[in-house]
Amino acid sequence: MASLNSQPSKKVRNNNSSGGSNNNAAQGQGSSKNSSGQTVKFARRTSSGRYVSLSREDLDMSGEASGDYMNYTVHIPPTPDNQPMDSSVAVKAEEQYVSSSLFTGGFNSVTRAHLMDKVIESEVSHPQMAGAKGSACNMPACDGKVMKDERGNDVAPCECRFKICRDCYMDAQKDGGLCPGCKEPYRVGEFDDDTPDYSSGALPLPAPNKDSNNMTMMKRNQTGEFDHNRWLFETKGTYGYGNAFWPQDEYGDDDPDGIKGGMIDTSEKPWKPLSRKLPISQAIISPYRLLILIRLVVLVFFLHWRIQHPNPEAVWLWLMSIICELWFAFSWILDQIPKLSPCNRSTDLEALKDKFDSPSPSNPTGRSDLPGMDVFVSTADPEKEPPLVTANTILSIMAVDYPVEKLACYISDDGGALLTFEAMAEAASFADLWVPFCRKHKIEPRNPESYFCLKIDPTKNKSRTDFVKDRRRIKREYDEFKVRINGLPDSIRRRSDAFNAREEMKVLKHMRESGADPTEPIKVLKATWMADGTHWPGTWASPSSEHAKGDHSGILQVMLKPPSCDPLMGNAEDDKILDFSDVDIRLPLFVYMSREKRPGYDHNKKAGAMNALVRASAILSNGPFILNLDCDHYIYNCQALREGMCFMMDKGGEGICYIQFPQRFEGIDPSDRYANHNTVFFDGNMRALDGVQGPFYVGTGCLFRRFALYGFDPPNPNKIPQSSNTEMQPLGAADFDPDLDVNLLPKRFGNSTMLSESIPVAEFQGRPLADHPSVPYGRPPGVLRMPREPLDATTVAEAVSVISCWYEDKTEWGDRVGWIYGSVTEDVVTGYRMHNRGWHSVYCITKRDAFRGSAPINLTDRLHQVLRWATGSVEIFFSRNNAFLASLRLKALQRLGYLNVGIYPFTSLFLIVYCFLPALSLLSGHFIVQSLSVAFLIYLLTITLCLIGLAILEVKWSGIALEDWWRNEQFWLISGTSAHLAAVIQGLLKVMAGIEISFTLTSKSAGEDVDDIYADLYLVKWTSLMIPPIVIAMINIIAIVIAFVRTIYTTNPNWSKFIGGAFFSFWVLAHLYPFAKGLMGRGGKTPTIVFVWSGLIAITLSLLWISVSAPAATTQPATTGGTFTFP
User: Where is the signal peptide (predicted)?
Assistant: First the structure.
């Protein structure tokens, strides 16, 4: 249990030393006070359950672990580039304590660390995970577990190998430093650690022959230090470059391209760019631009002709049509002009590997020089977002092809649900098998659910003979994993019921013993209980005070502690069902976080959760780059992160704020009825913007530069004050913003000094390598090969404080820093703010899809999704984020693109009117022009041909299919007449009257075939958004029938007007065809409400027609047969 006895003050504190720091002081290692002035008090729980307080000095004990003496390194004296890591037993005990504790805290509450011996019901084996199984402590009456190293082996701080847990070891140190086993003093700092330290780049010396006498291994010289000379003599080892063991014949026996006789210095290799910008072929782009110009000119002449030739017979019809056409021309310009300069890009992954991951004389172990990467996954409700889907996303992240020690995964549970917490713990436990399996057999994709559902031969391109056996075993383990995940709700409920019943029995027993009235009702809270038998600090199944969705403490659990800095290879002796020999078995840092929520605070939904993740990750890992994913978007290409880093680490990469990947979806019906793939936007519009200032940020699948998220302008070496070697050193936060006073850092970022000190570190580590004269703003090679500092309780406690609900008060979080608040579409606004400050973004389309996710294929769900996007666009239009108010740093074509984002929903007002015009024309007998003249037809034909030509050429340079383009046109009209109209109404009411309207589902009609994967496509759920398209379709159908019958029975029929009106009516109905199919459901079943609306509309139109154009009375006598008169 760790407690903070002083609450963080909301008063702004001065920090005179935060700028220009190039150390890791932000981590606060080994300090009794953290940087915010919070004093951390520690306590431990004895075997009797009592908590005994310890001072910080009691924890600052050192003692070397003895190890098994099988691997040694030749030590190089400490230099500024070679700082030895603190690998004492106390540090290991502290890190294990942190990773096994659940930290909670918040506003006006104590930050506590609850030591969890058991996280989930199932057994945990991976040594990085909390609650991992281990040997029992040999101390009498102690049920603690022995401290473990990175491989999971027991750590024995004494030569006698007496097994002792962390708490008992601390007691022994405090009571005199005697080992309870041999009664001899612990010889602190005498023995080498089990894990060799490669921070200096040294390679391990070979282990001795197992058949030889190992007694000499234990012999030391007269000073008590290990005799390296004797070791080298007996093992025939040699010194090589940099006083490290050097392989004589070949480096990398498994690599057919291994380097013979030593290594080549990478500095001698020719400099290669990591990415290239590929222009579109002139044979395609030149005609495309020419057609845009021709259509623009023709539109001007056509609109001029339309204005000059009104229809005197129906001025009202002509006026409505010309207004709509003027707006459509303006909307087309906003959409089309930014597409003038599309481009493609390519990356060179081999060049990235050679530059950052290849062994060299200065880096003999091949330790990666890539910057750190923090991956954010957000979820809010386990009922709407199944935990199994989220767990599969987490597994795909853990198995990604990126240096394990540089990767950190964070899951934000905005609902604070125990179900999500235990599902993530189960995922971390299963990752112990899944991640090494993916590395061993080069599995793609690395989402187990998607992998096992592939309809291809799994043995294709697999060379290992044990693949089939391993796949069969891992499939069986995954099936059991799914059973455990799906059974978690019942398991948590049964467990909670049992513990609550026990508490009731305790209360009832106490009442009987105290003589209380037995008829009095028992008052026991219906709590939700964790696997270790304690209350869950988040949301309970039966909500109560401080345990509800909007009212709970902040929670932070390090599910998987940071891995060792060098590969940890498996061996056949490991207790695993698969043989992972020569496979790296490390797992990346994995953190569960649920920010504090309290009544009365605006938590700003997803944007607030993302900002809390930014702050917490800055304290714990501080990766210079951040990848954010939705819980249903998993990594489909394990090289995706490296593809993005090719742009960030290339020349000029310091000015890139984010890399946006296209969204790809699974589970879409083959015909893509509702344009769910949205390929026209992702492969057309976004690719075109990539040639200007960069694509929009679309909410997921985006790789951010952390420094850009902090609200700074892009670095400009010409304006930054230079000193000696300044370009090679981290600068202070104020160096990038002349208006930012160092003393006012808490006003912008909050009162966490750790957070403020991490900003220049993240900026420095995110720079490209200064390995070329044309890179004026880089970092020297090799500075990121040092291991990260281990976590301690002070650091984690600080991370808990920055996710509290009060932290953002009176700061610029959500206004300038992080994700921007105030809009439903916070993603577009956040990207706009970065572009407005002068940053550029890049669109990265990989050969193999980088990420894949799910999308709603149901009509109603799709309309509500579009409604949410359109509502956000209307909010943007009426806010200060309107592109009309952008700075001069935003390029002209980029400004048009952002203008279109805010304006496109208003097109629905004109589109609704224009869809009614054909029907009104047919019913009234008039057309939008007085007659179908030759000039009108020529203009119409030219505009149509230009549209067809532009569509064909756009299909060519974007790579989309013509059918996808047509599906996009159809759904544009469907959404424009339904969701966009509702968004405009909702936005106008909110701005003008402060009234908020939500469009919710009212009734359902479910399909019958539950086994069909596309069953949801035929699910009909009635919503008010369907009313306008239904009215448009019915009126156009009725108008065609009435006009046709009237034309037939007319003495002198005017077929030209009928054909003109009918043509446009059929054009409207063709666009609404997918909507009609959606209403029919499966097998032509139409909901009753459709017939009700159809009959009501038909009756209304009939009465309206009779009242407007009633038949004239006749005075002729009736004849026998009668006559037919059409009104």
Answer: none
